[in-house]
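### Sample
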Amino acid sequence: MPTSAPPSNRFERRRAETRRALVRAARQILAETGDTSASIQVIAERADVGFGSFYNHFESKTELFEAAVTDALEEFGQTFDERLTGIDDPAELVAAGFRLSARMAESQPELMQVLRRRGLGHLYSDNGLARRALRDLQAGVASGRFTAVEPVVALSALGGTLLSLVELRFARPDLDGDEAAVNLAEMVLRMLGVPPDDAHEVARRPLPDLG
């Protein structure tokens, strides 16, 4: 989960851990079924916290599940920051992001299931991967790497294709996920205005060590 500055005293640490436990429980429920109708009692039991603790942190289940989605998307974005650091070419960042996402469907299935079920509703959010993708698209347009187009429109195409790739990885696990990611990345780069030969090469560049 995304990290922040540690609480300064025991009470605050316990309070923060209780909140994290509730968010973890909500993430697990979203990943398993996507069903947000689970009772607060069920959520509290899964989090191993007292029922009354819930309302010390959230006013409603809706608020909790939104916090769980935000937490997952921010973790997703932080993973990209960590794994793709040092790549300066916006086109290579896009391609590597697709390929990393395909691999994360296996290495981090809970996280990617949350993205699969709830990612579309957060496509234009100010957190998680969306703001990072928008930043890279703006850099690509400014540098001439990508065709001059409204970055938010390009984000629609990029985000929609990425979510489709995630859906494909879970719906068709028999397919070669790496190959699918490479092909989709190449198509997206061409859509963004990268010349065909260049898009083909960039989509197949060696990935950084993904662990």
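The first helix runs from residue 10 to 32. This sample (TetR/AcrR family transcriptional regulator) is used throughout the tutorial notebook.
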